[in-house]
Amino acid sequence: MMPLPSTTTLLVSGGDSRITPDPITGLNKYGCSTEPDTTLAALGSSTASVISERGMAAANALREKCAALLMHATPDTVYEQQLSALRSELLSLCGINEGAHVDALFAASGTDIHLLVGQWLQPDLTLMIDPAETGSGLAAALTGKHFSTDSTCTGGVPTTAHLGQWQGALNTFAARDRQGHPLDAHHIETSLTTAVESAAKENKRLLLVLTDVCKTGLLFPGISVIQRLRDQWPEQIHVLVDACQFRLSPQTIRAYLAQGFCVALTGSKFLGGPTFSGALLIPQAFSLACEGRMLDHAVGAYSYANEWPSGYSATRHLQRGANFGLLLRWEAAMAELRLFSALEEAQLQPFLHRFKEAVDTYLEQNSHFEAVPNPPLDRRSLGCPPAWDNEQTIFPFIVYQCLENGIRRPLARKASLLVYQQLQHPPTSRPKQRRFQLGQPVLCGEREGMPVSALRLCISAPMLIDAQDPVIAEKMINDALAALDCIAEIADSFRD
Ligand SMILES: Cc1ncc(COP(=O)(O)O)c(C=O)c1O
Predict the structure, then answer these.
(1) Which residue's CA lies nearest to atom 5 of ligand 1?
(2) With bands split at pLDDT 50, 70 and 90, how would you rate the model's confidence at 406?
(3) How far is the CA of 47 from the centre of ligand 1 (A)?
(4) Fewer C-beta neighbours within 10 Å, C or N terminus of the chain?
(5) Distance of CA 403 from the midpoint of ligand 1 (Å)
(6) For the chain, how big is the Rg over CA atoms in Å?
(7) 28 in ligand 1 pocket by Cβ < 6 Å?
(8) 242 lines ligand 1 (CB under 6 A)
(9) In this structure, are residues 120 and 314 in contact, taking their beta carbons and an 8 Å threshold?
(10) Is residue 41 part of a domain?
(11) Are residues 288 and 325 in the same domain?
């Protein structure tokens, strides 16, 4: 019988070094602790969140269940059974029934999911959004490389940059101009079409990544252009929807799957589960496109065979195993998804609108800030009715320092990072400061000839669940505005 470590130990195991707590602070690189942190205002779900009390209770309960099952079964078997239950529930909460022929596989993070898609499909060329707008490891993961020197999650340290035989090329496309404003849709369509046409004419197999949504909340490059290109070269073009933010309604997810697009999700962004957890929803059309391809032995550093749905010959060279850390992280996320899925549209819209109005107004009126514009999300070509996922849930903005003479100066990237860090960990000079977690700063154009970063306030599923209590809803909006006040104060405290 295998003794199961504590829930907190498991929660930080079975992933890459991004989830490892610092031995001194006990926090991971995003400032997340392994226990619920009720004094932190969690407004950073576009990057990572601290586990909630609900999530912790669910993870504890599943750990106990697994410990009991392990008295009579091997870890691989218990893991596989519990993951299979999780798979059924995730598909069911997305409104996907058995007749839809959609499967799901699990991996340690959204980046791991991208790595597995690359290794499985082995495209000659992948086209995706500017890497600054998505996970920092995606470019490596999608081209067959380890995404960091300690990115494996099932053990072993990579000794080479590439993890297996396959190496793919990558073409990336800017989503914003030098001001950080979204590029015109026509411009994006033209540059993507040119790149696809020339590769398709050379008979290349292409993976197009449709990012819905990116770190700053854009849908890129537009659904109709992807549909048009796929319809033109249906044998050569395959589509991965990077929905790792999981800011999508079940209708939208099903509509993507019905197109034959596979959909990457995580439990650790909008859902507010602990860092990190990933899943891939696989429609039959996509698995058929990969038919006959075996995953390289080396992929075993990122994936166990029993994390895949049964009957996939691609996993023949992978070992079976157990990653109870991943299972518990997903279970914590599912605790949020269960409650969130039970909410009606009419229960979501009021908070989404009030939060947006309050934040937009504040950013507009305070000269310490400049909102980064996001056009409305256009998913009309999927043909499903508009839902809550059409609303903005990520609010990026650039921070300025206001000087006594009325002049304002944009913060350099280093200073924005410092603001982000001091919001979570106030310096001793501000002992009474409240603690806020925002999305990590993202490179977002230039001001005065200098690259600048956007900080991000985010709405998460746990916030929408808690907002059903009007008093808590009000408090969360006030927290977001208090975070902005605090940012202005920190920015002004920097003197050269
Ligand atoms: C759009 C998008 N895709 C993928 C990722 C990578 O996911 P993960 O952080 O789980 O590796 C991120 C991370 O921020 C993201 O924003």
Answers:
(1) 135
(2) confident
(3) 7
(4) C
(5) 36
(6) 22
(7) no
(8) yes
(9) yes
(10) no
(11) yes
